[in-house]
Amino acid sequence: MKRLQACILGGxxxxxxxxxxxxxxxxxxxxxxxxxxxxPGCAALPTHHQLEVALASARAQSNGxxxxxxxxxxxxxxGVVCAVAFTGSNRAQQWPGSxxxxxxxxxxxxxxxxxxLALSTANLYAPTQPGGTLFGLQESNPVDPQVAYHGPAAAFxxxxxxxxxxxxxxINVFGGGLGLYNAKKELIGAIGVxxxxxxxxxxxxxxxxxxxxxxxxxxxxSAKGDDNINYQGLVAVPSLANDFSQPIxxxxxxxxxxxxxxxxxxxxx
Length: 269
Prior knowledge:
This protein is α+β, with helices and mostly antiparallel strands. The protein has a single domain (34-262), classed as Haem-degrading domain (Beta-Lactamase, 2-Layer Sandwich), CATH 3.30.450. The protein has helices at residues 21-30, 48-59, 97-111, 145-149, 198-211, 240-243, 258-262; strands at 71-76, 81-86, 177-181, 187-194. It has a 4-stranded antiparallel β-sheet. A hairpin with a 5-residue loop joins strand 3 (177-181) and strand 4 (187-194). Helix 2 packs across helix 5 (198-211). The protein is globular, with a radius of gyration of 18 Å. The two termini are 20 Å apart.
């Protein structure tokens, strides 16, 4: 990207010694997805630093969750991870499992958004429940564990995070993933955020996208016609919004989040 102007939750892959050089070489070759940081696959998207700054700004606001530190990830239109960042002082300050979930959310929002219709991961909750029209979707594109858990943990969330440049895969069906639309209304990838309740994740992801100026959303299934979260019990029944809704993330039975989601910055036109 040109520099900007002015409730929740492993896998381990074992490589058997002596399996032969050819399979290993093929695996390494499969990682070369053309999305290395700064490469052509990621050039139109935020850098690691831009993601880190925008994510920290969003996390610092009131988001209706437990006020936890977050992981954020960006993928390009081909599902290749371009950046991974976190908001805490080090990688241990966020749920470790949320690193892969953030990338999974980004992959989902990218995979099921279109140039003319944005679907957030929060929008996919209701239709993927048993009896829903998309039930089973979350099993359709599994996370690649070799990408998710490869490399030194010391690099997780850094500019050289081992996921960068590779396709993570995965489908996630609760809040935190959003398509990225530039000022030309082009769908160029997606962002995923994880580390708190899924409703707070959605709010932080939304604010991060807004700061990055990649929220020129063409249309969506929310009550306002964008990709905002639809809360069950607050939207009309029957309605399109209810068909693509998710539960309110109450804490001790109290709704501290829906009003925040309703007051999020409007998408750009």
